């Protein structure tokens, strides 16, 4: 099986997980809260089960690190050169709000980098996938046939993808420095997909996210020509420390533009992250 074949097979797994999510989404469901106050529903757990079973069939013996499973201790994780990084339901807050803006995310990490990424939006049916060095594609209900993804050169008036459920005053001050712009509020990894497809230009996140929130979409955006950078200008990488939290980051469609300088971000200002 080639890496592209593997990506397509993982895509089928995410569709199956998406189907399990939609069966619960269509009815009534209760919402619990985890220790960090983030919401948890039966849909998160149903998608988790489907993905764990599917990935075990596709790649026996490759470990899985998932939001909805107890994380392996750092003493074990630091020995992994290759593993799956999974968010069974990215955007549970949007799921609870019933606005449809949630995704299933699966990434394959090798030597700290996302080398295969799949993102599926159960509502609407979008499926995007990418393999390092091979490119990125999007299959939608409208097009049926997969279409290559290509991020665009930044226009004079950029479109800023922004979170519906997160944000900070610091982010707003920084983004104001870009001058005239449009805003595109979205939940989950859909923000990255809009950058990869040429519908948006930049997404800034100041504050913590988890590694499973970004890995799959990072691969897709990178293979479409974009980048996901910490505020020191380095590409996000994975499984380098005990904590599974990402630093603040910026996702961009056009890496040739000096977004960090325009936002007034200096290398020293966020060096602690």
Features:
26% strand, globular, 30% helix, 8 helices, 16 strands, alpha+beta, 3-stranded antiparallel β-sheet, 7-stranded mixed β-sheet, single chain
Written account of the structure:
The protein is of the alpha+beta class and 273 residues long. The protein is 30% helix and 26% strand. It has eight helices and 16 strands. It has helices at residues 3-25, 42-58, 74-77, 92-97, 169-176, 190-196, 211-223, 259-262, and strands at 32-33, 39-40, 64-66, 82-90, 103-110, 113-120, 127-131, 135-139, 147-148, 159-163, 182-186, 202-205, 209-210, 227-230, 245-246, 249-252. The strands form five sheets. Strands 3-4-5-6-7-8-9 form a seven-stranded mixed β-sheet. Strand 1 and strand 2 form a beta hairpin. The longest helix has 23 residues, at 3-25. The termini are far apart.
Number of strand elements = 16
Q: Looking at the structure, what is the overall shape?
A: globular
- Output mean pLDDT: 93
What is the count of DSSP helices, taking H or I runs of 4+ residues? 8
Helical content stands at 25-40%
Describe the largest sheet.
7 strands, mixed
Class inferred from helices and paired strands: alpha+beta
- Rg (C-alpha, Å): 18 Å
The sequence of SSEs as H and E is HEEHEHEHEEEEEEHEHEEHEEEH
- Estimate the strand proportion: 25-35%
How is the largest sheet built, in terms of strand order? 3-4-5-6-7-8-9
